[in-house]
Amino acid sequence: MSAFQPARGFGVYVHWPYCARVCPYCDFNVYAAKARDTAPLFDAILRDLDGWRARTGERTADAVFFGGGTPSLMTGDQVGRVLARVDALWGLKPGAEVTLEANPDDAARFADFAAAGVNRLSLGVQSLQDAPLKFLGRTHSAADALGAIEAARGKFRSVSIDLIYALPGQSVGDWRCELEQALALGPDHLSLYELSIEPGAAFAKAVQREDWNPLDEENAADLYEATHELTARAGYPAYEISNHARGASHESAHNRIYWASGDWAGVGPGAHGRLTAHDRRIAAVAAERPGDYLKQVAASGIGLASEESLDPLAQARERVSMGLRVAEGLAISDIEELGLALDLKRIADFAELGLLEQRNGRIALTLKGRLAADRIAADISP
What is the pTM of this model? Predict the structure, then answer.
């Protein structure tokens, strides 16, 4: 039996699939914006929200997240209309977090987004140096990034910046210098991601052609450890494997819903969602291609292309993989309430190796354990 637990949270994720340019490291469901008429897609997203409300029933939205793609290609009016629809359908809780991912190129629209109700900006800086930005296929310069950070100041409750490290040939010294520069800017939040070579992304083909070699695991691990040392010292401790905040009030409330195995409605092409209702928990995926998404919404009133019922075992494994990502770890009771049990012997083995800790009814990864999070989660799951 599955019932929605409000304490785990309910959010709305809006996927805007268009980008000015598709970055070579990206394997998300994105498309070049070109000169597209986006009005039909926008209208379909509003209708998709209606369809999800019919399925969730009455709830209150804790957070809304505009992701992509590049949602900063939307207009302030479009963002405001989406938020008005979410509020009319579910109601936004007082002070609800509203995040929008943005490119530095779109700084001229920041004031419009703030006026529309966005209170958290997630800025895709990726690097503060021009050569890495060129390698990563970004359309902005380091100067543009700094200008965008300055333009965002004072307009939003929280400003987060994304950076990518473990680039080919990058040394610990190189990364420390760049990260120290980022910390000195005083952002509210940092998302710091190791460059990964994803199947289907342009970088995967470049590596296959041997155009360049990815950084090896040992050096990448050194960079990860340096990341945690520097951020902790600067007052940005890691509250999740890749995320650092200047105080709990600046942690991502929407992402917390994911890590707590809460519920969220996912609208827009290729958006994923989770819904717990009517004694079922489903994993939902919207139609991926924008044209197919429009047809799906027109035909059924919802963008949902497929759904899978998650049995208790699947739910437990998801709770383990998500719950271990956060610094406080996973509550053992989260698994027990599903009628299942964690592998206590494997937990003891990993604890002996210094990879995780068990305290106050929870298990949490150590810094060393975070480097092997996926393997540990798989090994201790029911």
Answer: 0.97
